[in-house]
Design goal:
This protein is of the alpha/beta class and 261 residues long. The protein folds into two domains: 35 residues, no CATH class; 217 residues, 2-Layer Sandwich (Nucleotidyltransferase, domain 5). It has eight helices and seven strands. β4, α6 and β5 form a beta-alpha-beta unit. The chain is globular and about 80 Å long. 20% of the residues are buried. The mean pLDDT is 84.
């Protein structure tokens, strides 16, 4: 658009360009900068439910801190990683934008897992599809890991459900987590496991979001030749300790800052 067209546009708005530039200068003097707005979930939330959940979570964490043998708090979620190259930033000369590859390649690795609040231990499984059946299968594997941990501490496996810690899992309201059949199976097979559902539109209360975010930052700007190559790296990051996470940081996730409790 040339200068004459810009002037005509301002004339139609009954606003002279000098007024616009003056207002911009005044705004900058007040230390404002022009930023993209962030999508927010605030309008969809129920503040009362969020406050009640926050109090309940704080109570769980206090018990876990003072009596870890009686209660464990885990944060659970699903995520996905694509073969498509994710470009965050790239070096380039000032004043010019560098062209980078943006291949829309097909291929995705789905993961499901949890992170424990007390020691940040992670449990992650890879799966072909996120559904209720796979949720239960992964939950069974997760529960067996806890039984193994119990046995390694010198206890009997058959005593875990009665004498072991109560396992509280914090997770969202996805339909695959709440099917009646699945909930009944969990209650029967894992009696000391309790699902605690987040308030609607509250991913900022789920600590594992920080794990997914950190992993996606790590794989950004990388080109993977195959699903197997991506999955191998993710396994190293999520299950073998290669991923270093700053647990005290705040991240922007799905519109809001994740604040680890």
């Amino acid at each position: 658009m040339d200068c004459s067209k810009i002037s005509n546009l301002f004339r139609k708005c009954d606003w002279h360009p000098t007024q616009w530039f003056a207002s911009q200068a005044a705004i900058r003097e007040k230390k404002y900068v022009y930023l993209w707005a962030k999508y927010s979930l605030e309008a969809k939330r129920d503040p009362a439910k969020r406050e009640a959940f926050k109090e309940k979570l704080a109570a769980y964490l206090e018990i876990e801190k003072t009596r870890p043998e009686s209660l464990q708090v885990w944060f659970w979620d699903e995520s996905g990683f694509s073969l498509r190259v994710i470009r965050r930033k790239t070096w380039g000369k000032k004043g010019s934008r560098k062209a980078v590859r943006g291949d829309r390649r097909k291929g995705r690795v789905n993961v499901m897992g949890a992170v424990r609040q007390s020691d940040k231990k992670r449990f992650v499984e890879f799966l072909d599809k996120g559904n209720a059946a796979n949720f239960y299968k992964v939950l069974e594997l997760f529960y067996q890991e806890l039984v193994n941990e119990w046995v390694e501490a010198g206890n009997q496996a058959e005593d875990f459900a009665v004498k072991g810690a109560k396992i509280v899992i914090i997770l969202d309201n996805a339909s695959l987590h709440k099917t009646e059949e699945c909930l009944k199976k969990i209650e029967a097979a894992m009696p000391n496991l309790h699902l605690e559902f987040l308030p609607e539109y509250s991913p900022d209360y789920n600590l594992i979001e920080l794990v997914w975010h950190s992993a996606k930052e790590y794989v950004a700007n990388r080109l993977f030749k195959s699903i197997e190559e991506l999955e191998s790296l993710l396994h190293q990051l999520l299950n073998e300790g290669k991923l270093i996470i700053k647990w005290g940081r705040k991240i922007k996730n799905k519109g809001d800052a994740l604040i680890p409790v």
